[in-house]
Amino acid sequence: MKTILAAFAFVAVAASPAFADCAGDLAKIDEAMKTAQLDEAKKTQAMGLVDTAKAANDKGDAAACETATKEVLALLGM
Q1: Per the domain annotation, does 27 fall within a domain?
Q2: Residue-number span of the structural domain to which 45 is assigned
Q3: What's 78's DSSP letter?
Q4: Closest to 21 (Cα-Cα) out of 46, 53, 44, 55
Q5: Residue 11: inside a domain, yes or no?
Q6: How far is CA 49 from the centre of its chain?
Q7: Closest by CA position to 43, among listed 64, 66, 72, 67
Q8: Is 11's pLDDT higher than 80?
């Protein structure tokens, strides 16, 4: 039982920076979207990716969140 708890604690601590990066990227994206000069198609694509990233972040899927945020940042030229 102690081993399981120790493993869970390690995973929780190790994953925390990944969640922080994703949340930080989402905050940057939210700010950038306010002034972004995107056509409607790219804006729709970006917002869909933001929704995907937020859902992944809420589920704890750091890899999916990071993938989606990188795509949005690329669309924004960041």
Answers
A1: yes
A2: 17-75
A3: -
A4: 53
A5: no
A6: 9
A7: 72
A8: no
For residue 60 the two structure tokens come to 């704890």
Structural domains of the chain, count? 1
Q: How far apart are CA 23 and CA 42, in angstroms?
A: 22
Residue 9 included in any domain: no
Give me the percent of the chain exceeding a pLDDT of 90: 63
The pLDDT assigned to 2 comes to: 55
Residue 21 — very low, low, confident or very high, per pLDDT cuts 50/70/90?
A: confident
> Which of these, 13, 14, 27, 17, lies nearest to 69 by C-alpha position?
27
With tokens 């994206």, the residue in question is 29
pLDDT tens by residue, 22-60: 889 999 999 999 998 999 999 999 999 999 999 999 999
Residue 1 falls inside a structural domain: no
